[in-house]
Amino acid sequence: MQLGEKIPLGLTFTDSNGQQVQLADLIDRPTLIVPVFYNCRTVCNVLLGGLSSTLPKMRLTPGKDYQVITLSFDPTETVAMAAHSQRTFLTATRTDFPPEAWHFLTGEQENILKLTDSAGYYFYQEGNDFVHPTAAFIVAADGTIVRYLIGQSIPPITLTMAILEAAEGRISTPISKALEFCFTYDAENRRYVFNLLRVSGTVILLTLGSFFLFLFFSGRKKKS
């Protein structure tokens, strides 16, 4: 991982309209970068599908507070494939999510590798498939990597906090992880609520664990 490092904003890619775009012209606010390959039929689709579900649940404005860049790391993939993926996953949001806030890019191998290497995102081709991590990362407006998001599902509170960190230029800390644990997203009321059951359950387990450890070590001292 390359937390605190900057991605090279001078790199040029091709968007879903076939236009050449430079990262420096796209990244002017907190940006979630999602490396995938569009022909993937497994984890990439699961990741993007989950993102389509997560984005509408956030209480942030796409295109204003943040944006998303999905980049194919397969240099053979085409503009048509990027456009198809954009239509698919924008439709999956079931909202009027602005297309200009979710870019789908393709590019040449040299630029792809410069970007992924700068982020510590490594992959390799195996036959017609790719072996790669299921991960995304958040960068600030100046390209600084502030957080990695690992796994096929990104909860709304996790993405929201990462975007807020990027807006302030803060690198992810254990405190933000603790806050995510203590709060859950209420989809019906579109807000974050304190998860009393989770926190109290954890406190009880820790207390019981400490009590049993106390009894165990007290017993050993008496035997001695």
Automatic annotation (TrEMBL):
Which keywords appear in this protein's UniProt record, sorted alphabetically? Answer: Copper, Disulfide bond, Membrane, Metal-binding, Transmembrane, Transmembrane helix
Q: Which Pfam families match?
A: SCO1-SenC (PF02630)
**Which Gene3D superfamilies does the entry link to?**
Glutaredoxin
> Where, by residue number, does Cu cation bind?
C40, C44
Cysteine pairs forming cystine bridges in this chain are: C40-C44
Tell me where in this chain the Thioredoxin domain is found.
Answer: 1-169
- GO molecular function term, any single one: metal ion binding
Family named by the database record: Belongs to the SCO1/2 family.
**What name does the UniProt record give this protein?**
SCO family protein
